[in-house]
Amino acid sequence: MRRPLFLRIVSEVSDHQPNFIQGRDAAGKLGFTAIQKITAAVRMLAYGVSGDYVDEYLRMSEYTAMESLKLFVETVVSLYSDQYLRSPTTHDIAKLLAEGESRGFPGMLGSIDCMHWKWKNCPTSWRGMYSGHKREATIILEAVASYDLWIWHAFFGLPGSNNDINVLERSFLFSELAQGRAPRVNYSINAPLGAKKKHFAAAQESARKDVERAFGVLQARFAIVRQPARIFDVPMLKKIMKACIILHNMIIEDERDEQETLDFDYEQPDETLPEPVSRDDTHMLAEFIRNRLRIRDRETHSQLQSDLVEHLWQLHGES
Q1: Dihedral angle computed from the Cα positions of residues 130, 131, 137 and 142, in that order, rounded to the nearest 10 degrees
Q2: pTM for this structure?
Q3: Among 144, 205, 227, 264, fewest CB within 10 Å belongs to which?
Q4: Close Cβ partners of 315 (under 8 Å, ≥ 6 residues apart)
Q5: Per-residue pLDDT tens over the stretch 121-178
């Protein structure tokens, strides 16, 4: 994380949360500054260390360090979620579709996958529910990432005994699409069927690496989500994971190459593009049911996969 970004976070977080402002105790002695408290919290997130580790570096007690961490992640989530952990707008979708088209996958917005976070201090009575194929208690993160490692969707908290399909069924990834509030996406794929699935599998594997890379970078930046979780409280673990993803997206935005051929600036939509999709609630149950059945239609998915196989093979032949 660059220094200007860190100082910006310190300023905005301390303005939003008064507990980070330096004060005096009952004896009139000055307490820790906002930079000291947020530095302790960021070090715990980045290095995955316990609260007493920062005592030697900042002369801060374990209790103060843990309280700073909890307040910091709560403030980051409440302050930045709407900007750095939001669904893509119509403008964003147009740019993501252009990138997907250039990679041979028309209509692709990103790649989805799940990651398991080991829960070291899982209560004994819950261990069976949270233990899956890894034979240890874990909590699952479902995420959607684009080619530039920006994480657009994050759903965290289900026990590790679930598989990826169970997590997808429980997540809110397709909720707005089912309710008819998602932006319309138009794309075309060559219709003829073919038997070139080997080439399709290789291309799909290459596209799926986006989310795998995003998980790797997230764990490299924040060791707390790479190492076993030591906190007992599941809601706090959710806030920590969400805060790490938000900070990850903030770093991606800060370090984005301005000389890139395609300028994927997700935070400055073009005013000439159509108005954002309406977020008004819909009460049309019949429409919701039709949309949900359309999303889960196996025949449509099989046809789409077959069309993609032929489409990618034709692009391969032209190149």
Answers
A1: -70
A2: 0.75
A3: 205
A4: 104
A5: 899 999 999 998 878 999 999 999 988 899 999 999 999 999 988 898 888 887 766 6
